[in-house]
Specification:
Order of helices and strands: HEHEHEHEHEHHHHEHHEEH
Structural class: alpha/beta
Length: 327
């Protein structure tokens, strides 16, 4: 059953030039919240209904943006995802999907045709930021504007700044900073050999390690030391999800293991929705690649691209020549 077309009469005419959005969510309260956020952002809600409405009328005009709420994955959800993914891949619509951590890997694995904007358990700040982003991609005359690399990075940085400010306001509470504590030496107990000049031997011979990256135990040690800072300082001071994910993927490559999107989100040290934005940016920048599981189409992994491997290997070689590894 249709839940209503929210653009009609004079309102439809007045909003003809605005971004048209269709909302599909089985949870009524989520559907209502998304509709209110879209209207507040200046978009025109073309349709709001349940996931069944897509299956019942697959040829329904969807407008410029489709927002799909899919907290659980089932047969109906997979069919809807696959159909919308194909339509979005043609450039006809921009797809935004909100889901949960439990369903993230399945959804990411199935949506392999388009580049949807994924959100995990989003709050209103996340939803508004996502809407602003997809609307920024559409110029006043319609269509989709191809953003340059500089434009995308600027938009990403602005998005993170807005999200950080909003998060700090929400968490604002009395209390002073945690006391500082002495940090362990950079390579204490790291098991890293010492090379010429007393410098760490990053590239010690190891028949099981790819020759292009340092030993996995060294990279893992760097990751642990980066995470240790959050015990003594506000973790937001050091948030650097792109670098944390690069390190995690470098270690995984050296270990010969594959990394799921959920695992990489955890490694980033930031909320999943923020991590997903960075993963998308890194894919667009040619640093991450998506690798499908040949045995299970529902699973997909993230890997370093050849370009990123070369850059990481060059970075560690340079560090090996100049002194201890910065964390």
């Amino acid at each position: 059953m249709e839940h209503g077309d929210f653009a009609y009469g004079a309102d439809a005419a007045a909003g003809a030039g605005r971004t048209a959005i269709s909302i599909f969510a089985n949870r009524a309260h989520v559907r209502d919240a998304l509709r209110d956020d879209a209207v507040a952002a200046g978009a025109r809600v073309q349709f709001a209904g349940s996931l069944a409405d897509i299956a019942d009328t697959p040829d329904r005009p969807l407008g410029d943006v489709v927002w799909l709420d899919c907290p659980l994955i089932d047969a109906q959800g997979l069919a809807v995802l696959a159909g919308l993914d194909m339509r979005a891949a043609t450039g006809a619509v921009r797809l935004v999907v909100s889901t949960t951590v439990d369903a993230l890997d399945d959804i990411y694995g199935w949506m392999d045709q388009s580049v949807p904007l994924l959100l995990v358990d989003p709050g209103r700040v996340d939803r508004v930021i996502a809407l602003a982003r997809v609307m920024a991609e559409r110029p006043a005359g319609g269509g989709v504007r191809e953003l340059s690399d500089d434009d995308r990075m600027m938009l990403m940085r602005l998005t993170e700044q807005v999200g950080a400010i909003a998060g700090r306001i929400e968490k604002l509470a009395p209390g002073g900073p945690a006391p500082a504590a002495a940090m362990p030496p950079p390579f204490a107990d790291a098991g890293v050999g010492i090379g010429a000049g007393g410098r760490p031997a990053f590239f010690a011979a190891d028949k099981d390690r790819p020759a292009d990256l340092p030993e996995a135990r060294l990279v893992r040690r760097i990751i642990r030391q980066r995470q240790l800072r959050a015990r003594f300082f506000d973790g937001d001071l050091f948030a650097d999800p792109a670098w944390d994910m690069l390190l995690d993927l470098a270690a995984a490559r050296a270990e010969g293991v594959r990394v799921s999107v959920t695992s990489l989100c955890i490694a980033s040290g930031v909320p999943p929705t923020t991590a997903l934005r960075w993963i998308g940016q890194m894919v667009e920048a040619g640093l991450f690649t998506r690798a499908c599981d040949d045995n299970d189409r529902r699973r997909a992994f993230i890997e370093l691209s050849d370009r990123a491997v070369q850059a990481m290997a060059a970075y560690f070689r340079e560090v090996a020549l100049s002194g201890p590894v910065p964390v």
